[in-house]
Amino acid sequence: MFCIHDGHSWHDLGPIRGRSSLRKPMDPDDQAAPRDTILIRVTGPDGPGITTDLLSLLSNAGADVQDMEQVVVRRQLTLGLAITVPAGRDLVKEVLLFGYERGLEMNFEVVDATPTRHAERLVVTALAPELKPADLSVVTGAIATSGGNIDRIHRLSRFPVWSYEFLVEGAQGDKLRTDLIEVAADRRIDIAVQPHGLSRRSTRMIVMDVDSTLIRNEVIDLLAAEAGHEARSAELTAAAMAGEIDFETSLRQRVRLLAGQPEGIIEAAIVHMSLTRGARTFARTLKRLGYKVAIISGGFTHFTDHLAQRFKFDHAYANVLEIRDGRLTGEVVGDVIDAEAKARLLRQLAYIEGVPLEQIVAVGDGANDLPMLTAAGLGIAFNAKPVLAESADATVNVPYLDAILFMLGVTREEVEAADASTTPLSAERPLSKLLP
Questions:
Q1: Which entry of 135, 190, 209, 369 is annotated as an active-site residue?
Q2: Which domains does the chain have, with CATH numbers?
Q3: What is the pTM of this model?
Q4: Within 10 A of 9 (CB to CB), how many other CB atoms are there?
């Protein structure tokens, strides 16, 4: 079917029938002649050469392309072109014949010649184990309620989670975030709202927490288990992560449980570290993208150095356990890396690497990560305690660290293409078994 729009209604032109011109004929070589602006929409089965051949036809007809966008979904093409042609130029039959020969539907519409005015835009990312039509409906409904119009929708992944990216213009940023937070809580969807601009596209550094983020354990609890104080240490850890007690006080109390233990318990604890699912894919992809990667931990240097060496991270910071005569004293050397220290280190790293704060992404799970996430351009709460999840820019509640890549606009297909020549190792295996 071929259709043309005359500004009032659509007309079915049949297979190759239709008006031969949009206005009375004029000399197409007359550069001073007025020009019509026409929107051509092409839909149908995709194939090589369609765009090239159509552009060649338009060029030969004296048309100029003002705008063009194309998308292919399940091998079905949707192509839109805004073109200008000399008024009266006989173009319709040529384009209709082009579409007929390729089994394509060609629609025409005379449109306003004024270019679309640039507007500030936001990127909304929705992520969940499943995203059904009802889920997507409430997301798009929240966008509309906030005054936003969706300019583009792009699927980022289907595995291990579903994720979509919506490019939105005209929305009230604060209202959009508020409405989407309500949607996320009700539908159990992870949502991120970010400005669409150079800062997002040029993000160059990731700063991560370690315990319960990069790894699934709390290293102090691993040490306490080796020392026979696992239950008490776990209680203090939970209270600190929930923001119920001061982090430094909690850490020092837990370290004192280790007093007198042989330093060999550190290596024994490292053996039991277990990476978060997707951690290797996440780290590997970030390095391929050229990101600087830093880990800042309220744990201990033996563990962070081990991880930094394994993943070739650029920076690693953590507390230093005091050891004398081969035994732990139950004390920490120097100042404790607490919540404010994490934020301070992030700012120092930004200065060292020459990266603006708005181009840094911070990832954490506990209350002591909040200042760090606040200091970054994008703060992501990963399977976080409520006190952090309620304040972060974005939340990820699925158990896959590489899902954060989708919040950055990286697609699953891009990750898989980059991994095609390698054999990923299972994230379920203990880290110690991955070492030479």
A1: 209
A2: 3-110 (3.30.70.260), 121-196 (3.30.70.260), 206-434 (3.40.50.1000)
A3: 0.79
A4: 7
